[in-house]
């Protein structure tokens, strides 16, 4: 490697070759004339050839210089191209973003964020892996994606969460005099109503069961489903009261629904960017994580 020219030496050589004068080359490079002379001399020593025949007043290109110029210009062009390419990647002006999200997140929170991201970074290709809750952790750990957007129901070795949305559980049903929008409802009051929840082992079900145990009540579950969005759809048809995160309820496309925050106890369910901490996020993935923090107002 010690015999390879440096970038500064190549730039000095190209500037002198193109201008034909040390003074002009020095001005082009914002260097002093003696500094350019030293760079040329060092380059000639590394290459073992003379590039210019010098007199007190002129420089004459040698045959070696005529042959070397093409290599020098090509090398500098490749370095410039590499710098420009890396700058584009660093600035998320191009690249690829792979996101894992559970089906509910993919249907509710993700579309708004992805639309905003694509408006800001149109040259980045966005790939969404909408997976089952049981596959979410596996896909992030297996590096099938750059990051996940969702909730870890329990701490997971090898994964880190960057919370961007702090959410609470809510009860959702058709609006009525008995189920008015806006008023909190306790778990004891909820126990008297027919409930729609996700199945045991799915998503928020463990937190629902823990809250019922804390409140010392037995819930009346009439429907168990796999997706939170299905629970809300059933509630919109008057089949019961769905227990879902408040943000999921807010994104539901069904008119006439009332949403009541659950209290005593209040149950928090955070939504986060999930990633492997020992693996650097690619620039597009970091840009998306930053966007989620801005869009949802929490870090």
From TrEMBL:
<dbReference type="Pfam" id="PF00126">
    <property type="entry name" value="HTH_1"/>
</dbReference>
<comment type="similarity">
    <text>Belongs to the LysR transcriptional regulatory family.</text>
</comment>
<keyword id="KW-0804">Transcription</keyword>
<feature type="domain" description="HTH lysR-type">
    <location>
        <begin position="5"/>
        <end position="62"/>
    </location>
</feature>
<dbReference type="InterPro" id="IPR000847">
    <property type="entry name" value="LysR_HTH_N"/>
</dbReference>
<dbReference type="InterPro" id="IPR036388">
    <property type="entry name" value="WH-like_DNA-bd_sf"/>
</dbReference>
<keyword id="KW-0805">Transcription regulation</keyword>
<keyword id="KW-0238">DNA-binding</keyword>
<protein>
    <submittedName>
        <fullName>LysR substrate-binding domain-containing protein</fullName>
    </submittedName>
</protein>
<dbReference type="GO" id="GO:0005829">
    <property type="term" value="C:cytosol"/>
</dbReference>
<dbReference type="GO" id="GO:0003700">
    <property type="term" value="F:DNA-binding transcription factor activity"/>
</dbReference>
<dbReference type="InterPro" id="IPR005119">
    <property type="entry name" value="LysR_subst-bd"/>
</dbReference>
<dbReference type="GO" id="GO:0003677">
    <property type="term" value="F:DNA binding"/>
</dbReference>
<dbReference type="InterPro" id="IPR036390">
    <property type="entry name" value="WH_DNA-bd_sf"/>
</dbReference>
<dbReference type="Pfam" id="PF03466">
    <property type="entry name" value="LysR_substrate"/>
</dbReference>
<dbReference type="InterPro" id="IPR050950">
    <property type="entry name" value="HTH-type_LysR_regulators"/>
</dbReference>
């Amino acid at each position: 490697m010690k015999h390879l020219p440096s970038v500064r030496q190549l730039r000095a050589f190209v500037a002198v070759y193109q201008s034909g004068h040390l003074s002009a080359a020095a001005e082009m490079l914002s260097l002093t004339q003696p500094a350019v002379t030293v760079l040329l001399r060092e380059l000639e020593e590394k290459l073992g050839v003379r590039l210019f025949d010098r007199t007190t007043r002129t420089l004459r290109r040698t045959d070696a210089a005529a042959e070397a110029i093409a290599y020098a210009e090509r090398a500098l062009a490749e370095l410039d191209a590499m710098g420009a390419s890396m700058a584009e990647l660093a600035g998320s002006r191009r690249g690829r973003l792979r996101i894992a999200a559970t089906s509910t997140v993919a249907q509710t929170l993700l579309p708004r964020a992805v639309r905003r991201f694509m408006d800001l970074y149109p040259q980045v290709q966005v790939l969404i892996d909408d997976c089952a809750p049981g596959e979410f952790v596996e896909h992030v750990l297996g590096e099938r994606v750059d990051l996940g957007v969702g909730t870890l129901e329990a701490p997971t070795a090898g994964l880190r969460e960057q919370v961007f949305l702090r959410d609470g559980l809510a009860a959702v049903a058709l609006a009525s005099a008995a189920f008015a929008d806006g008023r909190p409802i306790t778990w004891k009051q909820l126990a008297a109503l027919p409930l729609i929840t996700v199945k045991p082992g799915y998503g928020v079900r463990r937190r629902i069961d823990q809250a019922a145990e804390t409140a010392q009540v037995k819930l009346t579950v009439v429907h168990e489903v796999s997706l939170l969005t299905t629970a809300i759809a059933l509630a919109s048809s008057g089949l019961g009261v769905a227990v879902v995160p408040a943000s999921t309820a807010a994104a539901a496309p069904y008119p006439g629904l009332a949403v009541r925050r659950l209290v005593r106890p209040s149950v928090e369910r955070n939504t986060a960017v999930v990633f492997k901490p020992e693996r650097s996020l690619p620039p597009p993935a970091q840009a998306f994580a930053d966007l989620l923090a801005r869009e949802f107002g929490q870090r």
